[in-house]
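Dear support,

I submitted the protein below through the web form. The confirmation email said the job was done, but the results page showed an empty box. After a refresh the structure appeared. I'm attaching both so you can tell me whether what I see now is the final result or a partial one.
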Amino acid sequence: MPIVVLACSAGGLAALTVVLERLPADLPAAVIVLQHLEPDRVSELPAILGQRTTLPVGFAADGDVLTPGRVLVAPSGFHTLIAADLSIALIPSGAAPPYRPSADLLLTTAAIAAGRQLIAVVLTGHGNDAATGATVVHRFGGTVIVSSVATSTQPAMPHATISRGDITGHVVALSDVGDLILTLVNAPMITPTQLLRGNGGAATGDR
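What the results page shows now:
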């Protein structure tokens, strides 16, 4: 089963809306959304996104098993991890760095658990969270998509991942991210390496 992780920070609500509205109710992939949020702030993201996508949206809970066609949102106050059996594990984030919740931690554990079935998507945001996690995703055979700097409200997170070099498989305009996800999840037998070879070995889009 393909797993899609959407990571963002500042400007994330608008970016997530653009991506999720392109994904159909019968999406053959599980989706996890992570947006940075202060630990003591209650997130309204599931309720808002639930009105903007045909996919069911809810908070990730400890022990939840990833299922296709469902969007889980990382809750505030916890780092969201993926266990070997593709279930959710939550650990308190505390008041100190790293970024909270941490995209690096989520992507690293998801990469180890899901390997080449993982699609990591880095969207708008401050800082460099997700860059290290995306590196792990690439190392374990997964695919990394980044919204182009030009179409990101806050370009720091996309830029940090792109700057890691060839770990990024696709750099595309935000408006094209959803369609690219659909192409990838509907072609599960095509590996990220084969996709890159089809592009002449280069990442797509403009950086």
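Response: this is the final, complete result; the empty box was a page-load delay. Confidence is low (pLDDT under 50) at residues 190-204.
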